Amino acid sequence: PEKLAVRDAAGCDLTYRELDAQSIRLAGFLRSHGVGAGDVVTVCQPNWSQTVVVFLAALKLGAVINPVPVTYGRAELSFVMEKCQSKALFIAGRFRSTDFSAAVAQMPDALTHGVAIVRLGDGAHTVGTRWEHALAHVPLAQAHAGSADDPVAVLFTSGTESRAKGGVHTHNTILFGEHALGGALGIGANDVAFMASPIAHATGFLHGVVMTLTTGGTLSLLDVFEGAAAARQMRAHRCTWTMGATPFLADTVGALA
To answer: N or C: which end of the chain has fewer CB within 10 A?
Structure first.
């Protein structure tokens, strides 16, 4: 329980005990707002430790995780929420140059009515519940006992050809691939994964969050990528492996040259 589970560039470090305690309180908050098994929880947050807390809270409810990239604007976020009939939405108040509180404030009332909205940090608009208040809720009394074939995540494509398409995964479809990959790479509890790929994308969500936590390792998250910053964090967190698209790897290697 005292082993480090996830840490990020802002210095938010969570042990497995802390990750469990925070996620079960957040699950209690969501349950009090009517979110339950099978409901979709849309998450538009960067590579922060708190984002992993949201994922685990949804799992404890038997809800379906719907991570979306922070590059989404109001139109893309609205499209995904309407398509998924989201019952909860987690946003960063502001990240880099984007004010997500403004994007949510401009959404039609019909789309956000009855949706449990939680914001991490402040933006120009006071929307939803502050993260700290949601995290102070009474813990969920009992975690949902689901089936391995229940839906657990909806991962959207980039939408380069047309509208983005959501692929539905079950526990089984995710775990089969992650067990196979982890076994092939020899990844286990002593490994520290460095993940700069967004955990809202398949690479970061599946190979970063899922594979690391199910093998009992430690996840190191970087929210704003830059080659030299990635190299520094990998050294500081004593990371043992990473995975990402070619630009991530090329820029990191370039910073070391």
So the answer is: C
Q: What is the pLDDT along the chain (257 residues), one digit of tens a residue?
A: 999 999 999 999 999 999 999 999 999 999 999 999 999 999 999 999 999 999 999 999 999 999 998 988 899 999 999 999 999 999 999 898 889 999 999 999 999 999 999 999 999 888 999 999 999 999 999 999 999 999 999 999 765 666 788 999 999 999 999 999 999 999 999 999 999 999 998 999 999 999 999 999 999 999 999 999 999 999 999 999 999 889 989 999 998 87
- At residue 67, the 3 state secondary structure works out as strand
How far apart are the C-alpha atoms of 134 and 143, rounded to whole Å? 18
Q: Report the candidate in 204, 238, 221 with the shortest Cα–Cα distance to residue 10.
A: 221
Cβ atoms of residues 49 and 14 within 8 Å? yes
Structural contact between residues 99 and 53, judged by C-beta atoms closer than 8 angstroms: no
- In angstroms, the CA 176 to CA 6 distance is 23
Cα 146 to the chain's mean position, in Å? 21
* Residues forming a β-bridge with 43: 67, 90
**Tokens, residue 66:** 């719907």
Q: Which is it for strands 88-92 and 40-44: parallel, antiparallel or unpaired?
A: parallel
